[in-house]
From TrEMBL:
This is RepB family plasmid replication initiator protein. Keywords: Coiled coil. Residues 323-355 form a coiled coil. It comes from Tritonibacter litoralis. One of its GO terms (biological process) is DNA replication initiation. GO terms for molecular function: DNA-directed DNA polymerase activity. InterPro entries: Initiator_Rep_WH1 (IPR000525), WH-like_DNA-bd_sf (IPR036388), WH_DNA-bd_sf (IPR036390). Belongs to the initiator RepB protein family.
Length: 423
């Protein structure tokens, strides 16, 4: 079956180390996941993490979940499809147990999930929950970093490499294995290392280095004239190190942290919000929340308040020290600059997407009528999701929601067709 450009992870082979306590990257996730589905998996794990080994079932408000991942808050059908994909995704581990014996295991990523009364309930198998909760085995991804990624390949590469950050290198991966990690092993186009390097490795490394708290350097090993293996050297990115969550020892003593827990926010999410926004901003939104009556889901409302900067129309201005005012103004100016940079980046991405879609329509228009019909049938055969198939039947090559899939399709059909549009 042809694999689309949807990132997934799969590693096999034992991780043999001298000390069991030093096991890292021992569990890996395989499956055909979109960028948003991969983000959904990490959000669910974050939500459940505090009680991962003490509770069999976990719950989260469905609309809050959609909001945190990036779905439309009312798009339950997409959420259902994503949960179904996670239940069909395989997690596998091959490692040494506490007594030094070889242990292999496999489990579905979610043992079940259900939506009822606006609540998403889900569970992990006991064996997998134990592995996911152990930081020596599986690295929990910071959502503040995750939300910055716009490429599925980049996020997949980051997840695979971040788990080796303490060892400084991923070790050598066979090229075939790397293709499976990136979800392009079924594509004839990426059988060529030249294409794999130009379209997957280089762009993914560039985004990880620009976006995340680590810096990657790829190295290649040849067998004869062919590249046979790849590894990534890893070091911390000093400019983005502040994106890491601290151990919580100091934050947990603060009043803002305690107020977040009181309204139902989990430990790790509370610490992420404080690390990302600062205690003063979070406290401001908690005050805003406290002034509203009849809020059914405080966590969902607070998520929106932090994201969209909810404010009272006529707030009472307290008397403050001039030094505090100056500091706040400096912080707001810095935040405004960052927001402007984000807006510019989004504008560039929108422009690039528009250019790609225009190029796709141009390429399709240059084909003969017979070729056009064949192109559409071939592209439809690659879409497994019925929602995506329906969207393509409705909008054809103007289906903006399928932009990445269409770019991959035309890139394989006409290599180099988008090279001049590279950012």
């Amino acid at each position: 079956m042809e694999q689309s450009e949807i990132p997934h992870q799969q590693l096999t082979g034992p991780l043999r180390r001298q000390s069991v306590k030093k096991n890292v990257a021992a569990i890996h996730i395989s499956g055909k996941l979109t960028l948003l589905q991969r983000k959904l998996s990490n959000v669910l794990l974050l939500n459940a993490y505090d009680a991962l080994t003490s509770k069999q079932k976990h719950q989260i408000d469905a609309r809050t979940l959609c909001m945190m991942v990036g779905y439309n808050s009312n798009d339950m059908e997409t959420l259902k499809q994503s949960l179904r994909s996670l239940a069909e995704t395989v997690a596998e581990w091959d490692m040494l147990d506490e007594e030094g014996r070889q242990e292999w295991g496999v489990s579905s990523l979610l043992s079940y999930a259900k939506l009822s009364g606006g609540i998403c309930e889900y569970a992990y198998s006991p064996a997998l929950a134990e592995k996911l909760h152990d930081p020596k085995v599986f690295a929990l991804i910071n959502l503040n970093i995750q939300r910055r990624f716009t490429s599925g390949h980049a996020l997949a590469l980051y997840e695979n490499c971040y788990r080796f950050v303490r060892t400084g290198s991923t070790g050598w991966w066979p090229i075939d294995l790397f293709r499976r990690l990136m979800g392009v092993d079924g594509s004839a186009y990426y059988e060529s290392f030249k294409h794999l390097n130009a379209k997957v490795i280089k762009p993914a490394v560039a985004e990880v280095n620009k976006t995340s708290n680590i810096i990657l350097t790829p190295e290649f090993k040849k067998m004869g004239r062919q590249v046979a293996e790849v590894r990534f050297l890893i070091k911390e990115n000093p400019q983005l190190a502040m994106l890491d969550i601290d151990d919580g020892a100091g934050v947990r003593q603060g009043a803002i942290y305690q107020r977040l827990l009181a309204v139902g926010v989990s430990d790790r999410l509370a610490r992420q919000w404080i690390a990302e926004h600062g205690e003063e901003y979070v406290g401001e939104k908690l005050d805003y929340l406290g002034g509203r009556k009849g809020i059914e889901s405080p966590v969902r409302y607070l998520t929106a308040a932090l994201r969209d900067d909810y404010k009272d129309e006529a707030p009472v201005k307290p008397k403050v020290d001039p030094a505090v005012v100056a500091r706040l103004e400096a912080e707001r100016a810095a935040a405004a600059r960052k927001e402007a940079e984000r807006d510019q980046a989004k504008a560039r991405e929108r422009g690039l997407r528009a250019a790609r879609l225009a190029r796709i329509r141009e390429l399709a228009g240059e084909r003969s009528p017979t070729q056009r019909d064949a192109d559409k049938r071939l592209f439809l055969s690659r879409l497994e999701d019925e929602l995506e198939r329906s969207e393509f039947r409705r909008a054809g090559w103007a289906a903006a929601l399928l932009e990445m899939e269409m770019v991959e399709f035309w890139g394989e059909l006409m290599p180099g067709a988008f090279d001049d549009l590279e950012p």
